[in-house]
Amino acid sequence: MTHTDNPCFETSVNLLNDPQNQRVWSIIISLFGDMAQQPKDQISGGALTRVITPLGIKPEAIRVALHRLRKDGWIESVRSGRASVHYLTEFGRTQCAAVTPRIYAREPGAPQSWHLLIAAETCGQAALDEALLLPGYIAVNRTTALGFGPKPGKTQDLLALDADNLTLPNWFKTQLFPADLSNSCAALLKAVNAIPDPAPDLNSAQVATLRTLIVHRWRRVVLRHPDLPANFHPAGWVGEACQRRVFSLLDQLPRPVLADLCETPEI
Amino acid sequence: MTHTDNPCFETSVNLLNDPQNQRVWSIIISLFGDMAQQPKDQISGGALTRVITPLGIKPEAIRVALHRLRKDGWIESVRSGRASVHYLTEFGRTQCAAVTPRIYAREPGAPQSWHLLIAAETCGQAALDEALLLPGYIAVNRTTALGFGPKPGKTQDLLALDADNLTLPNWFKTQLFPADLSNSCAALLKAVNAIPDPAPDLNSAQVATLRTLIVHRWRRVVLRHPDLPANFHPAGWVGEACQRRVFSLLDQLPRPVLADLCETPEI
């Protein structure tokens, strides 16, 4: 196993890995989303194993996760000679594409315009719940949604207005950025700050392992909160520092060419 | 009783009077608020009787109401020779002065700027309830207050923002102007439109009776809703037409000089 004979690599994996909280299918999606999101992209079973087993995940667990991902319609697998190759279904690609802009955004949301939709206790709740299913809406409380941009033309049974000059109380900030999210984010910042700058002699699989781990951890922080400007952040929120370090590391770990990754190494 | 020998006067009183819904103490306050709100103003017992008995109210009921108003601190009464005179206490004058601008406003509220204060279900409720006790705040629902003018500097635990370009749903309009208020207002409009223009030969007491009735009915409509521009009114709201006719009638019934009113007529 020559490709793990690298103490910097092992240190980085240990710092980034979170075995308590490891869903193998979710890690596989992070990997496909990062490296094989285009229609013709595919990853061989061998490459998957090389990228994911360094996290302490057994090949059997990978097989189980792939089975689940096929059953749920995310992934398809085909035989190619004696090997297997795996790729995202159209459904899987659509799901990944929906969150890719958010995961890979390098800047926190700029200050922008806002509107509010407000229901009565006894009227307009259905219209409000419908609005809250749309992207660009944040629940303030049971009867109020804050929306990005100016108020839409049709607002059904809702009191609607353009909002300006917002003063944000602490309860709203910690509702958007709850303590467990802040803790996850602080833990990730600690990890990404502690790992050494990537060595230039990492092979393609090692680069893919580190990218997958970083993207996976960041995805689980960034997708749990809406993209909001700094005045929405609670005191002590380190998301911006975390984001800077995540992208500084990813820039030092350029995406391997899939063909290189999937070539069976001579071991 | 020469002063009721006027068929136009009697018709007007019958149209404006609402014996089902007649609180004598409240009518007396309408009279004092309209005609004797200044510190040295006073109304004799005889004048009170002459103004109020045409409404079908017995002198005994006037005595009971005055007793209650003294007990509650609104009115004081003193002897003056064989007669009695009555006047508003400082408390009574303050209470009247607080609502006089609203009752006597001749124009509906102009469009103006607005702000919102929003509480969470579990946070900020006390601050919101406090704001709703202030003039210039309207409850939207249990967690939201709409305030006149720009957002205040300090808003405690509340999400605060300047609101613009409001779209108002029907539930909010009928919450502000409920059906029974709309009905009262429509009934008053019908009455004020039906009464003949005041005859020039009315005596001071008759003028005072009609003014008191008109102000009393209008007060009970106008103080039950906030002063809001037309886009807040539900379909069919006739408050503006009512207001125009009320002030057109009051302009034709100029306030009698108190000394004339209180002079005992030779009967």
Automatic annotation (TrEMBL), chains A, B:
One of its GO terms (biological process) is DNA-templated transcription. Residues 201-247 form the Transcriptional repressor PaaX-like C-terminal domain. Gene3D superfamilies: 1.20.58.1460, 3.30.70.2670, Winged helix-like DNA-binding domain superfamily/Winged helix DNA-binding domain (1.10.10.10). Residues 25-90 form the Transcriptional repressor PaaX-like N-terminal domain. It comes from the Bacteria. This is PaaX family transcriptional regulator. It comes from Parasedimentitalea huanghaiensis.
